[in-house]
Design brief:
- Helices cover 54% and strands 9% of the residues.
- The protein is mainly alpha-helical.
- The chain has two domains: 37 residues, no CATH class; 73 residues, no CATH class.
- The chain has a two-stranded antiparallel ribbon.
- The protein is elongated.
- The termini are far apart.
C-alpha cells in the first residue's frame, strides 16, 4: 500500500455545511468547509483495548445534586481526577465488591457440597448408573 493509499481526504462544501447548520448541527457535528486530510492507520486493536473496562459509553444519568456537588468538589484540586472518572471509580469498587461477594458465596456452596457425604454418595450413585448405560 503506497503512502497515498493511506491518505483520506474529506471535502465539505459550503452548501453541505450550511445545510447541516440549518438542521441544527453544530461545529462539533460537521467539519468546516474545505478539504480535510486524514491518515489511515494499520494499528490493530489489542484484546485489552476492547475489554469492557476500557470502553467508555456515554449515558444520561440523573444524580442527586449533593452527590454531583460532592464529586465536583473532590475534582476541583488541580491534581484531582475529573469528577466523572471519580464517580466511575466508586461505581467500579461497588461492582467489584459485589462480584467478590458472589465468588465467596459460590466458593462456600462448593465447599459445603463437597464436604457433604450424602451429596457425594448421590453423585457416586449417578455415576455408577451412567457407567452401566
Amino acid at each position: 500500500m503506497s503512502k497515498t493509499d493511506k491518505d483520506l481526504i474529506l471535502e465539505v462544501t459550503q452548501e453541505e455545511y450550511d445545510e447541516a447548520m440549518k438542521k441544527g448541527w453544530t461545529d462539533d457535528d460537521i467539519q468546516k468547509p474545505g478539504k480535510h486530510h486524514y491518515r489511515r492507520t494499520t494499528r490493530v486493536a489489542k484484546p485489552e483495548d476492547i475489554a469492557a473496562s476500557n470502553i467508555k459509553v456515554q449515558v444520561t444519568l440523573r444524580l442527586d445534586l449533593d452527590i454531583l456537588e460532592h464529586f465536583k468538589n473532590r475534582a476541583s484540586p488541580s491534581n484531582a481526577a475529573p469528577y466523572q472518572t471519580q464517580i466511575n471509580a466508586e461505581l467500579r469498587k461497588v461492582m467489584e465488591n459485589d462480584l467478590a461477594d458472589e465468588q465467596t458465596k459460590l466458593k462456600k456452596s462448593v465447599e459445603e457440597l463437597t464436604s457433604n457425604k450424602e451429596f457425594i454418595r448421590a453423585v457416586a450413585e449417578q455415576l455408577k448408573e451412567l457407567e452401566t448405560v
